[in-house]
Design goal:
This protein is mainly alpha-helical and 69 residues long. It has one domain. Helices cover 42% and strands 9% of the residues. It is built from three helices and two strands. It has a two-stranded antiparallel ribbon. The two termini are 15 Å apart. The relative contact order is 0.17. The mean pLDDT is 89.
Length: 69
C-alpha cells in the first residue's frame, strides 16, 4: 500500500493499479495482449515477490525511493 496514493500490484513484469478491475468492468478497457498472456501464464494469481524486488519496481514506477523515507 502507498499511503495517500493508489495501491499498485505487480507480477515483477507488469505494474497496475489495485482498482484496475473496476475500470476494466465499468469502462470496458482493452488491456495489452502481453499483459493478458502474462496473467494467464500465472494462472490469474499475483506472485509474492521479495521486498528488494518490490522496492526496486516501486522506485522505477514512481521515481521515489520508499526505502529511504
Amino acid at each position: 500500500m502507498i499511503p495517500g496514493g493508489a495501491s499498485l500490484k505487480t507480477d515483477g513484469e507488469w505494474v497496475w493499479r489495485y482498482d484496475l478491475p473496476h475500470y476494466v468492468t465499468e469502462y470496458h478497457l482493452a488491456l495489452p495482449e502481453g499483459f493478458l498472456r502474462r496473467i494467464r501464464e500465472l494462472n490469474y494469481t499475483v506472485p509474492q515477490l521479495d521486498e528488494d524486488t518490490l522496492f526496486t519496481i516501486l522506485k522505477e514506477v514512481t521515481g521515489i525511493d520508499f526505502r529511504n523515507q
